[in-house]
Records
---
Amino acid sequence: MTKHDNLIGGKWLPSNTYSENRNPSNTDEVVGLYAQGSVDDVDAAVAAARKAAPGWAAATPQVRHDLLEEVGRKLAERAEDYGRLLSREEGKTLAEGIGETMRAAQVFKFFAGEALRVTGDLQASVRPDIDVEVTREPVGVIGLITPWNFPIAIPAWKTAPALAYGNCVVLKPADLTPGCAHVIAGLLDECGCPPGVFNLVMGRGSVVGEAIVTHPDVDAVSFTGSVATGSHIAEVCGRLKRKCQLEMGGKNPMVVLDDADLDVAVSACLNGTFFSTGQRCTASSRLIVQAGIHDAFVEKLKAAMLALKVGDALDPATQIGPVVDEKQLSSNLAYVDLARKEGAKVIGGERLELDVPGYFQAPALFLETTNSMRINREEIFGPCGSVIKVADFEEAITVANDTEFGLSAGICTTSLKHARDFKRRVRAGMVMVNLPTAGVDFHVPFGGTRGSSFGPREQGRYAAEFFTTVKTSYLFAG
Ligand code: NDP
């Protein structure tokens, strides 16, 4: 079995321990052995990044562009192989795995372009004969901590802007899915990334993640994952006075009004709620449905959900792959039990035993629920959706906004007035009209409000807000 090492200071360094990366579609299959990094590895990676920082900050935009462009090109060229690896380690269907790899490729190519477009301002001073110049500079050494649910796209959408804007990086991917991040590290190395500019330290969050976040020589941290870990990172970064960017959970509302096109609504909700096994922070977990369309909508969505094929991620017939691991599956099943205890009518949601050992779960629909139930307040992160019946548009907006989160929100309607009103009044960072709450473009900002996100937005040109710092220079030429 091949051992996959950490990349530190341009060298692939072996570790004392390696963890088994297992396939959630077939837990008998070990995808690979991946290094378990230590605090010493983090120290070495941060030191390498710090050493490389002045050189990379001074590298021309053309140099940064060429590196990112080449990584993007190779990712796209090998998307089939990497997508297969992604599906084997995370459990997304092969189509989703390849799609996510293509997205990572697009992200690298986008930021290759952005490396050429770093701009500033030249402003007139309020005093005579003085020029004022506002320029963007790299932040320095950035710690990137990523989750398991988008194992290639999220490392890409943090790494590419960090490097494009001249920063050096220490990346720690989720322990459950290190394979795709290892691919990105391999490509950067293969494409000539200078030693220390990008470092990969795999391992546990409590060891490697914690060491990155608390390291005195890290200038900023970008994190995606749970609210609990994100809140902890925010506290540490606040105490250490360093920049942080957090993307956390969601409890995303999808409103279906009486005037919706029923087929459009069912298709958006089926995709948003169940695809990628519901393991998306943008998943549509609260389906807020107006009374007039409620019964027809529920009947149609239920039939479509029950027809979904759950199975091995690599089987072309599979529409819903496995849950990522036993812990997440147990948590999902506990929420299905809780839904019953709270008085919901539960359709599906049971554990499925297939021919091979894996973490399979039938998608679940919770009917006759209220927004105060715990199943409608806490992020489940599995293939589970709740239906909440409301009387009218005003009640729908009130329920949609009654949550601690604010990532994505959707509405299905044929009324321009309702669509416009919803876009303005819903408290979320992203709004979808007649589209699933999940599924976003790669070149525009991604992020939310309230408990979902903290700090500047990710992706698109708005990523510059986090990955650069602004300098104001005054010049008197005499
Ligand atoms: P975590 O927040 O624990 O994991 C996210 C990343 O943070 C992982 O790389 C993890 O490492 C790392 N990490 C964990 N502890 C620390 C720490 N003290 N310091 C620095 N980094 C740390 O989420 P889980 O994977 O445990 O998932 C739990 C729940 O979080 C899910 O059920 C879901 O509700 C939510 N979640 C939300 C995501 C989103 O996109 N918003 C993505 C993933 C999960 P490692 O895992 O290697 O130990």
Note: The CA atoms of residues 56 and 166 lie 6 Å apart.
---
Amino acid sequence: MDDLRQKYIGAIADAADEPALEELRLQAVGKKGEVSLMMRELGRMTPDERQEMGPKLNALKDEINSALAAKKAALADAALNERLRAEWLDVTLPGRPRRQGTIHPVSQVTDEITAIFADMGFSVAEGPQIESDWFNFDALNIPPEHPARQEHDTFFMSRAEGDDRPPHVLRTHTSPVQIRAMQETGAPIRVIAPGRVYRCDYDQTHTPMFHQVEGLAIGRDISMANLKWVLEEFCRAFFEVEGVELRFRASHFPFTEPSAEVDIRCSWAGGSLKIGEGDDWLEILGSGMVHPKVLKAGGIDPDQWQGFAFGMGIDRLAMLKYGIPDLRAFFDSDLRWLRHYGFSALDVPTLQGGLSV
Ligand code: 2NL
């Protein structure tokens, strides 16, 4: 029995892995194991022999089982240590840099608007942000003493003493871009002019720089009916609502006659804005038939040509579409809030609606 003890305790200590250990367990204390077979012999012994051998065999069995358990634990420990060594990682290494940039909502909305009007045959015109007061005002039928000049809260460029060239201003609307486009292209013409404009004003709904898009369509017989269709198509595509409803309210602008302000049907129920349903109206743009004097300033004969124009605030459209409450947030230096509204670096503006003309 001492031989048996020596044999198994030694072999267990030397076992290389768990399968080897299991093999030893079966050989020693398994059903047909050496110790188990010896225990079966007890039945054939005399009571005295049994009295002596029984406890010894039980002790041997216990001893082997303990050695197996201890070796099993030691093997598991060694395996864990090996994993810890092999899978070691340096948590102090700097992280991989992540993309931080996002598309600005104003840029995205500008692209969305451009895509929609492009589908209706409008091209994009651009022009200087510093304009002569002729292009910004006179050409738009706003003569020097016109009250609209004051209402525009214009930023004037400073002039050196004795410099009496005509005053220049930061453009207060993108209309001068369209005057230039008319002068360059003549009629017929279909353009939109998106871009930055400036007015000396600052509160929750006004920033001194904001973005406007104006549109202009001149042809032989372009009418208010065409204006109405173009604006309805635009709103349907932009707000992604099939049943948009617009309301044209008579208004006044110096550069259009007749003029209309346009409201869109909406609901403020539950504190959130829904476009295209409900009993409320939201003003979204100004429009009208281009004034003959403005056509003339653009070098177009008002006896031969006519057309419509409209203007709207891009920032406001972005706020309405994406539910952004405060205009000033757009022009903060800290743009982390953009992520809250779902603007990501990978967002690519899409062609809206699939309009056809
Ligand atoms: C508004 C109103 C408007 C225009 C802009 C325009 C341009 C030319 C000729 C005639 Cl070149 N009109 N632009 C016309 C009507 C309204 O803007 O409330 N904008 C935010």
Note: Residues 175, 178-179, 212, 214, 216, 253, 255-256, 286-288, 290, 294, 309-313 surround 2NL (CB under 6 Å).
